[in-house]
Amino acid sequence: MNNSIKTICIFASSSKNINKVYYDAAYNLGIEIAKNNFNIVYGGSNLGLMGEVTQAAKTHGSEITGIMPEKLYNFGIHPGDCTKFILTKGMRERKAKMDELSQALIAIAGGFGTLEELSEMLVQKQLGYNNKPIVILNTNNYYDNLINFFNDIIEKNFAPKETTNLYYIAKTPKEAIEYIKTYDFKETDYLNKKIMIK
C-alpha cells in the first residue's frame, strides 16, 4: 500500500429483502477490507448490507465506527456491532462525520440514501473539497443504469468527459480494494483540477 488510507467509508443498503448475491458481495468486501488492514466507518445500522459488510470485517479484525442520527436511533434502528458508535443531530451531520473520519469510500448496492451519499461525495470531489478514491461496486450489474446516466450527462455536455476520473467502477470486492490500495492522491488531484476549470 503506497498511500495513507486507513479507514474506508461504506455506503450501503439497510434493506433486508434483497437478493443473496448482494449479501455475498458485501460479506466478501468485509473480508477484503479486514485482510488488507483497513477499518470501516458507516451509517451505524445492523440491517441489510450495512450489517453484513461490517460484521464480516469486524470478525476478521477491522475496527468499525458506526454513525447514526438521533432520530433513527430513537425510532428503534439498532446499531451494529461497532467498535465505536457515534450519534449525530441529523443526516447532514452524520455524512459530515463519516467524511471526516475516512480517507476513501465504497458505494455498494443501495437505495436512495446510498445514491444521495454517493452523489454528494462526487460533487465534493468535482469541486475540490476532497480527493478521496470513490469506488462504485457494481455487483450483479446493479449500477449499470446509473453509470449509463452518468455517461449521458457527459455526452450531453452537462459535465466534462474527465468527470469519469472522479470514480472507479469495480466488479468485485477484491478489485475495489486493489484500486484503493494503489490510489495515487497526487495524480488524481491533478486530474480533478482539470475538471474544475472546464
Please explain how this structure is put together.
- The protein is globular and about 45 Å long.
- Helix 2 (48-59) links the parallel strand 2 and strand 3 (64-69).
- Strands 4-3-2-1-5-6-7 form a 7-stranded parallel beta sheet, sandwiched between helices.
- It has a single domain (7-196), classed as Rossmann fold (3-Layer(aba) Sandwich), CATH 3.40.50.450.
- With 198 residues, the chain is an alpha/beta fold.
- The protein has helices spanning 20-35, 48-59, 70-75, 91-100, 112-126, 144-155, 173-181, 185-196; strands spanning 7-11, 39-42, 64-69, 84-88, 104-107, 134-137, 168-170.
Q: How do the helices and strands line up, and which of them pair or pack?
A:
Blueprint: E1 7-11, H1 20-35, E2 39-42, H2 48-59, E3 64-69, H3 70-75, E4 84-88, H4 91-100, E5 104-107, H5 112-126, E6 134-137, H6 144-155, E7 168-170, H7 173-181, H8 185-196
Parallel strand pairs: 1-2, 1-5, 2-3, 3-4, 5-6, 6-7
Helix pairs in contact: 1-2, 1-7
